[in-house]
Amino acid sequence: MRRAGPEIDVLAAALRVSRRTVVLTGAGVSAESGIPTFRDPQDGLWARYRAEDLATPEAFARDPRLVWQWYQWRREAIAAAKPNAAHLAIAALDRLLPSLVLVTQNVDGLHQQAGSRSVLELHGNILRNRCSRENRLTDIDTRGTSKPPRCPSCGAYIRPDVVWFGEPLPPQILAASQAAAGNCDLLIAVGTSSMVMPAAGLIALARSAGARFAEVNPQETLVSSQADISLRMPAGEAFPAVLAALD
Ligand code: OAD
Predict the structure, then answer these.
(1) Is the pTM of this model over 0.90?
(2) Does the pLDDT of residue 118 top 60, yes or no?
(3) What's the gap in Å between 26 CA and the centre of ligand 1?
(4) Which CATH class is domain 44-79+132-162?
(5) Element (H, E) at 217
């Protein structure tokens, strides 16, 4: 584990006095579990695939089989992945702090697997399915299918329960995330490029309410210059070190 550096101690000190903490995570928190991010220039999903062909309602209407197969491929990769040291340390923080709200843009369920009790999933969860017409969740077994099954009640296609480009976020989850961000005293953004709204807007919301803003990311992002605390390192190194420094 990385030895406590000054920035780790600063974040640990901020957590020690925080009464209402929000952690906002993105694809980078799962990178060390082997799940590709979206915007990495080499391995990112959007460097290799066109979002317009795979992650929009229009793409699904045009070619449901292609979209389904792409999600089945991602599901297989996610099923083989395990929570990493960052997921585990964030779950441990959740048990340690007076109030931690975990908001994620990830659809992989790894925070829950690591033991985080309540996770606000802004972009849905790839492991769930719902009817594309009625939106009702279904537990129909889709393993090994190469085309989308039909909804048993209305016959429309079943789709993954994720948010596609051009679709609204689940309103209650977005509202709960915005309420938490607008009422926190410390927001930590981890592994997100902070380019996608409305998720990235939570940072501005927290800052305008007077919260401190910490960023954990090996790369600079659009919001790095606004950070009060910057941990320019992988989440899997940063969080266990912060946890150790808190003890
Ligand atoms: P991005 O791929 O845009 O950004 C991932 C971020 O993680 C980058 O800033 C990396 O520098 C950082 N990163 C990489 N490895 C890391 C590590 N080990 N530890 C910490 N950070 C690391 O992913 P998101 O910001 O999550 O939406 O993307 C937001 C949304 O855009 C996604 O939820 C998805 C995508 O289109 C939908 O599909 C609706």
Answers:
(1) yes
(2) yes
(3) 5
(4) alpha beta
(5) none
